[in-house]
Design goal:
Chain lengths: 268, 642
């Protein structure tokens, strides 16, 4: 690799998706010169937008915020790959040293039925929030928590919960799946909460409610392509989907048997 | 301007309990009749909205991102402090209080800080119950690490993603309330004004960032938790959307702005690499637990690969200057020391604009002692991030770091109840000025945001609501709301009509350069005076010459940017004026005229106060007021980490 200094620059051809709400959308072509290899992909997009504004043209709308790979806001499909070609990296952490001088780069929004395009590269991911609202939590009133060290959690369990909890909710899993399935996202949350002792009381309720909300939000089925795992910027694995399936079946079985039991007495 | 801090009477340790016992309550059956607006869904806003919803109030919560889970609290890496004393190393609420007062260089309010230290333990309990996967020991109990400015280990952490995990906890509590219908969430909404009716805050004006609709919302009380203003420097560790707009608009409606010149420059960030850079990335302070900071002893060695520079030719300058805290010296001190080394020509890394601005953070000793696996487990994600950005592997060669703008201690003035000088307008989290004085210690912002959001605001907002009663909420099409709507719409029309030849970003960059050079790590009278004149000129030019394309209908990223930059251009001037008037050095505010051989020299006789600025109308200079800091328990002393 050539020396990595801002002096080494690229000339690029960009094909960028342009779409207004309610209309079909199309690619627009632009050339951009002197892109430093040390720039991030979004800094390159900033350069393009600056060039457009200087020419009196409209900038591309794209989602981005923290630019350090954790907020989950950035959401570009780059050369057909959500978050681009480097595994385990969000769009904002992708750097231009991974591209060649003279290359043509295609930039599109997430493509998924459950994520309608709002404008250009910006999509509506509110379906994810609705899934969490349905059950992606542990009910604990502020102020009612017991002393933190009263419940020991084995380090291995806590580490496994953390592996799943690292999900940033960006939606690359959905965008990369042929079926537009959200199983990796939902599986990560269900895994995180269902293996911790604190998550036990709502374990079945949570799995059932989240799966129901997932279906209602228009996400597709999982047919084990595994693309989600390959494009997840946090390298969340298919294990969480296996666990989600197990948790769901377990909850259905428990639900079945609990409805055949005696009715409970009311409280006072 | 009334600056009564309403600090409760009685011994420091009993103040909060006594105060709570006296605050007025709202009957549970009546709570749903009150409507509270919470702007912000970070740790402070998310926790406040969730808790107020849980208590039964009708809550509307706003954020500019597409989901409340993406507030910039998500980016906090290192950890959250709590005086649990799980390590048996002598910690207590009192010690956390003392560390925070000293860390803030004796410029914070005693009573607030003591309350914060007391609440810290409940925060950790709450988060663990929510399922936050904090790091644990093999026995299953919670683990801790050390952070700067403390000699105890009291920081709780979740790998290098503590903020993410805490925010996901608050977001899950908030989501539950949204699902139950007690909180109405408005993502992709930007607050552009506060509306006052009869002198009380009774609503806000927002722009729907998707449809472009500008709309008025009324409420019985308004809570701002909109984060810090670090992006006035253009390059910072803040998210791109972080802004001063929400607090600045409140200031223009009468809320006092406190200590705007107190900004924190964090020592461990990745150095600037070029002109088109839009963002600086923090490498958590926790790295200083295992990394040693050094530069070559002589400038001639600076171009050599670090491995070729022998031990005796290296200057571990923090260990040399501050032997008792070493690499864990507080941020302001560590940052200045790095700047000094670079100013002496001993910086490392590629030169940008002819200067090498970087120092080494070296893990080789720790890797040799603990093994690469342990270091990977502690900081793996940070090392990966470093490699993504720089293309360098920090397991093999030292990281290069340099200070960057990170946090803002200044903010809207609030009393002990977190109420601003506008009745009914409460401010929590980084947006207020309250707890960190002139310098914030690591792992204390997450603690403060959650203390404000979970525990303080729900109690004090209730007291206000009980006081104003149920007749208070005006309709959102009253005259005050219509006037504020008109103001916002006029401003949008004005900025779109200029159609000049410079982009909003170019103004932001230039503003950033002015304040970084003259109101950054070192400040002096001449530089600040020039900065003020330059900012005024830049602001005038902006309103004559900015070009905003894309209109105002629907998603309009250039319009959003221009609005935020316009407010930074007003705020930047106030920040410099505050720095100019504070003729002493304290914490992150270092006036080169006031020093003892590189160490900050405070002037407690003249400046043991909070400076609070009052808006006097467009075109007029703000008026400066003072809230004296009276210490009952702590003695002023010279801060020493030697
Ligand atoms: C990179 C980084 C690392 C950090 N690490 C640590 C750490 O390890 N420990 C620690 O204690 N602290 C750390 N901090 C500091 C800490 O994270 C922040 O101070 C804290 O999280 C701020 O929380 P907040 O709720 O006040 O604001 P934020 O989390 O910034 O939330 C602001 C909210 O307000 C909304 N908002 C803002 N403006 C508007 C507007 N005009 N209209 C509508 N909505 C608006 C946003 O959408 C968002 O929801 C770190 C900070 C950074 C930048």
């Amino acid at each position: 690799m050539a020396a990595d200094t801002p002096d080494r620059t690229l000339r690029l051809k960009l094909r960028v998706w342009r779409q207004r709400a309610g209309s079909p959308g199309a690619f627009e072509e632009h050339e951009l010169a002197a892109v430093p290899v040390t720039a991030s992909f979004l800094e390159m997009m900033d350069m393009l937008n600056e060039q457009l504004v200087r020419q009196g043209r409209e900038a591309f709308a794209f989602d981005h915020d923290c630019r350090e790979g954790i907020c989950g806001m950035c959401s570009m499909t780059i050369n057909g790959m959500p978050h681009g070609p480097i595994p385990g990296v969000t769009t904002c952490q992708l750097h231009m040293r991974n591209f060649r001088d003279g290359e043509t780069i295609t930039v599109e929004p997430w493509r998924a039925r459950a994520f309608p395009v709002l404008k250009d590269l910006v999509v509506d991911r509110s379906g994810f929030d609705r899934v969490i609202q349905a059950g992606g939590f542990i009910t604990v009133r502020t102020g009612s928590a017991p002393e933190a060290n009263n419940t020991p959690v084995p380090k291995t369990v806590s580490d496994e919960a953390m592996d799943a909890a690292e999900c940033i909710g960006c939606g690359a899993c959905v965008a990369s799946c042929k079926n537009g399935s959200a199983m990796l996202f939902v599986g990560a949350k269900v895994t995180h909460l269902s293996i911790l002792p604190q998550g036990q009381p709502e374990r079945e309720r949570r799995a059932l409610a989240m799966v129901k909300a997932m279906d209602e939000a228009g996400f597709g089925n999982c047919t084990n392509y595994g693309e989600c795992q390959a494009h997840c910027p946090k390298s969340i694995t298919l294990d969480v989907i296996a666990r989600l399936n197990r948790e769901y079946v377990r909850a259905r079985v428990k639900e079945f048997f609990s409805t055949t039991g005696k009715p409970r007495k009311g409280g006072d | 301007m009334n600056l009564d801090a309403k600090i409760p009477a009685g011994p420091l340790a009993d103040k909060w309990a006594n105060h709570k016992a006296k605050l007025r309550l709202v009957n549970p059956a009546n709570r749903c009749k009150y409507h509270v607006i919470v702007v912000g869904s970070g740790l402070a806003g998310g926790a406040a909205a969730a808790t107020l919803g849980e208590l039964g109030y009708q809550v509307s919560c706003f954020c500019y991102q597409d989901s409340p889970r993406r507030a910039h609290s998500i980016a906090a890496q290192g950890g959250i402090n709590a005086a649990k004393n799980y390590q048996n190393d002598g910690d207590s609420a009192r010690r956390l209080f003392l560390d925070t007062i000293k860390g803030g260089d004796y410029r914070a309010r005693e009573a607030n800080v003591y309350r914060l230290a007391q609440l810290s333990t409940s925060i950790v309990d709450q988060c663990v119950a929510q399922g936050v996967p904090f790091a644990r020991e093999y026995g299953g109990l919670l683990a801790n690490r050390s952070f700067g400015g403390a000699q105890v280990s009291r920081t709780f952490y979740a790998r290098g993603q503590t903020g993410q995990q805490l925010l996901l906890g608050a977001y899950s509590a908030l989501s539950r309330q949204i699902g139950l219908g007690s909180v109405r969430m408005h993502p992709r909404h930007e607050m552009l004004d506060v509306v006052l009716v009869g002198g009380h805050a009774k609503g806000i004006i927002t722009r729907d960032l998707v449809t472009g609709e500008v709309k008025a919302h009324s409420a019985d009380a308004v809570v701002l938790c909109t984060g810090g203003y670090g992006n006035v420097f253009y390059l910072s560790t803040n998210a791109q959307g972080c802004n001063v707009t929400a607090t600045w608009r409140a200031h223009r409606r009468g809320a006092g702005f406190a200590n705007p010149c107190y900004t924190q420059i964090h020592p461990t960030c990745i150095p600037v690499h070029g002109e088109d850079q839009a963002k600086l990335t923090l490498m958590s302070e926790s790295l200083r637990n295992d990394g040693r900071v050094w530069v070559p002893k002589v400038a001639a060695d600076c171009g050599r690969p670090p491995a070729d520079i022998p031990e005796e030719r290296r200057d571990y300058f923090l260990e040399r200057k501050y032997p008792s805290y070493g690499n864990l010296a507080p941020r302001d001190i560590a940052s200045r020391a790095a700047k000094e080394a670079c100013d002496e020509g001993r910086g490392v890394g590629p030169a940008v604009d002819g200067k090498r601005l970087g120092v080494y953070l070296d893990f080789s000793a720790s890797i040799a002692r603990l093994g690469e696996g342990v270091i990977r487990e502690r900081y793996g994600n940070l090392f990966d991030m470093y490699e993504n950005i720089t293309g360098e592997n920090a397991y093999r060669q030292p990281m290069r770091i340099f200070p960057a703008v990170h946090y803002t201690m200044g903010g809207l003035w609030v009393d002990y109840n977190l109420q601003s000088t506008i009745p009914g307008l409460f401010v929590g989290g980084e947006a207020n000025f309250s707890d960190h004085g002139a310098n914030r210690l690591g792992a204390s912002a997450l603690m403060q945001g959650l203390a404000d959001g979970y525990f303080v605001l729900p109690t004090t907002v209730a007291d206000y609501l009980a006081g104003v009663g149920l007749a208070g909420r005006p309709s959102s099409d009253g005259p005050e709301f219509r006037a504020a709507l008109k103001d916002v719409n006029d401003r949008v029309a004005r900025v779109l009509s200029i159609n000049g030849n410079r982009t909003a970003r170019s103004y932001h960059k230039e503003l950033g350069r002015i304040v970084w050079d003259r109101c950054g790590m070192a400040r002096d009278r001449a530089g600040l005076e020039r900065a003020i004149a330059d900012i005024r000129g830049l602001r005038e030019d902006f309103w004559r010459n900015v070009r905003v394309t894309g209109g105002a209908d629907g998603l309009a990223p250039e319009l959003e940017r221009a609005g935020r930059v316009a407010d930074f251009l007003e705020f930047g001037e106030l920040m410099c004026r505050d720095a100019l008037e504070r003729e002493e050095s304290c914490g992150g505010h270092f006036r080169t005229e006031h020093q003892d051989a590189g160490e900050a020299r405070r002037d407690d006789g003249r400046f043991a106060h909070v400076a609070v600025w009052e808006w006097q109308g467009a075109g007029a200079a703000q008026r400066r007021h003072e809230e004296p800091l009276r210490y009952e328990e702590v003695q002023f002393s010279t801060r020493s980490y030697k």
